[in-house]
Amino acid sequence: MIKFMKNSKGNLSRRKDRNKIKGLYIQLFSIHGLIRGFDPELGRDADTGGQVVYVLELAKALSEHPKVEKVELVTRLIRDKKVSEDYSVPVEKINDKFGIVRIKCGGRKYIRKELLWDHLEEFVDKSIKYIKSVGRLPDIIHSHYADAGYVCTELTQFFGIPFIHTGHSLGISKKDRLIEDGMKPEEIEKKYKIGHRIEVEENIIHFANLIVTSTNQEIEKQFGDYENTTGGKFRVIPPGINLSRFYPYNKTIKHDRKTAMLLQMISTKLLTFFIQIDKPLILTVCRPDKRKNIAGLITAYGEDKQLQEKANLAIFAGIREDIQTMQDNEREVLTEILLLMDKYNLYGKMAIPKQHEIEHEVPELYRIAAKTGGVFVNAGLTEPFGLTLIEAAACGVPVVATNDGGPRDILKNCKNGILVDVTDHKNISRALNKIIDNKKTWLRFSEDGINNVRKYYTWNAHTSSYLNEAGKLIKSGQPSLNDFAPVGKKLFKADKFVITDIDNTLIGDDKSLAEFIRLLNDLHRNVGFAVATGRTIESAFGILKKNGIPYPDIIISSVGSEIYYNYNGKLVYSKGWGAHLNNQWNRERIKNLLSKFDFLHYQEEDTQRKYKVSYYTSDVSDNLKMVNDILIQNKIKANVIFSHGQYLDILPYRASKGKAIRYLSYRWNIPYENILVAGDSGNDSEMLKGELLGVVVANYSEELESLRGQKRIYFAKRKFAGGIIDGINYYNFLK
User: Distance between CA 494 and CA 135 in Å, rounded?
Assistant: First the structure.
């Protein structure tokens, strides 16, 4: 690694800056689904459910804590006519300390989470760019679900930021459920990319410093299936609920006129579905998902004539406009609901509204159920937590819940209902009858729920435990699993870069090279050093070591087809650059097409790379034209680079040393005019042109003569490394 001179004045300045910081800066990442700061569209699709509520409420609660200075919820920016314009606002301010930051990734359209996997490197790049634009690293990053976990895994490796993760659901559990439902493994892989998700989750478990779960069952039964799971990094911190919204049915609240009218309208609208409006209400609120077992609840109600006489049934299964246009899972569930309603002739007894508003309507629905002496039902076949159960408890409505996962912990704490095996619908109807028939039982469950929710499930309690754990992570220093962070933190602070070719630019004259090395060792910490070379990474690393050159922060190798970061002597491949190059690249097809040309000789295998096909050839312009022509005729986008009179490289159209440098400029938020590049040959041409500060060393190949006189290209008077120093002085780059 390059040794940098310490600057005591700079260190003092940073200490003063830290003293100005009022509190913690926390970034929460929740990438998929539709997230906005008001009226979340819960149930619109499979990706917009309980996780959305969880992250919004967590962010708001954290922002209200005096130890927290700033909270950002980072999600995906969406510009799609099919969804609200609210999701296209880059920064949505919620309060003085909390905002939603939206980052463009995977195009503009709203797409399901399984299609986002191929675009997460873009999200990583733009997250780094955003963080650097803020000018301060977060004290904590907290990912929600595996896609956000992937992003935070990359960020913690770059910067050493303490990393918290919440799974919400896990790939192995989902795969097992889908197989039980009769889906073939190859179908599961094709639709959900489940193998990749599980691999990502293993990495998340390895790199996360803390994994927050809602229940012990989540640790034992779900995370327990993963190889990297160890007990020390898990903490059970149940989520809370907003008690100002979910207040008890028997509490008198003074509302403004508009809210009072809205609440009255909610009640009136619901009652229009029923013939007899004075019966207890059986209520469920969930997404239209097969795992929610809505069909089991309707069957329990439909098969029990006495229960139908006693109570009405209301099912709020997401938001819908046209069932035929919905995704397969939602369409099948909603169609089954309507068919079962017809089968049991539940018209006038059962409601299934198309829309419901979250902020006021859902809490009021719980209170309506309670006022009628009704019951809330969570009949899910599996339930990692069960947020609706604590919402119902807070409002005073007893519950019947699945005897699986989170509901076990919730009912153990709240004592507000009955757990049943929901695979037998008769268990559901028996429990409903038991609660509705016995007023004392109903009152006991109602009162216990109201009281115990306030004891176990408040956001104040959650944030207190959360910040206590976060404080421990920050106090302990850099994550123990990560020795990659020093260069990442240097790049975060870097505002200038010196980037040079190796052969015949950096090396070639020992005396001027020694002079350049002394300059490197005296560089200020805000100036980075990189090389951009046609050599492979192995060859580049070897030649730098042989010549005693301090290892650069970044190596752009194989004519710009690869980028590596140097972490304390460990080279780490830039997956983001690889993902960027992969678009429309077909190496084998190019190789087959060019095999017909006798004037091309395939280079040795150790020079070939995933994103580079290399040949020896002669300096004959017609030959190069034939190569370009055949690629164009076959509609192949590629970058053809000829250098040193004999080397021909075929790269993805997005690849070159120049494009790699511009990618790094974008990712690390370093302006072009703060990047000095030096080279000597044709494969340096693109990186020398444009808005960068170009330096052509005096021993250049004639291929670069055409650049003379162009803006921001300086032809040095000295050769080799001396020419780089000459260019640095010409641009007054380090002053």
Answer: 11
Residue 696 makes CB contacts below 8 A (sequence gap 6+) with: 678, 679, 680, 688, 704, 707, 713, 714, 715, 716, 723
Structure tokens at 243: 């008690």
Q: What is the overall mean pLDDT for the chain?
A: 91
- What distances in angstroms separate CA 499 from CA 505, 511, 529, 532, 721, one per listed residue? 11, 20, 6, 7, 12
Cross-sheet strand order for the sheet of 210-213: 91-95, 98-104, 68-77, 24-29, 140-144, 163-166, 210-213, 234-236
Asked if residues 350 and 298 have their Cβ atoms less than 8 Å apart, the reply is yes
User: Could you give the count of Cα atoms lying within 13 Å of 167 in the half-sphere of its Cβ?
Assistant: 32
Considering only CA atoms, give the Rg of the chain: 31
Structure tokens at 669: 């938020």
Query: In this predicted structure, what is the pLDDT of residue 351?
Result: 95
Element (H, E) at 235: strand 234-236
Q: Which amino acid is at 285?
A: V
**CA–CA separation, 253 vs 239, rounded Å?**
25
Give the single-character DSSP code of 458: B
Over residues 594-605, mean pLDDT = 95
pTM, two decimals, is: 0.83
What's the CA gap between 589 and 613, in Å, rounded? Answer: 11
Asked whether the predicted pLDDT for residue 465 surpasses 90, the reply is: yes
Phi and psi at residue 366, in whole multiples of 5°? -60, -45
The phi, psi pair for 293, rounded to 5°, reads 60, 40
DSSP code at position 249:
T
Tell me the sheet residues that pair with 144. 166
Strand partners, 531: 500, 555
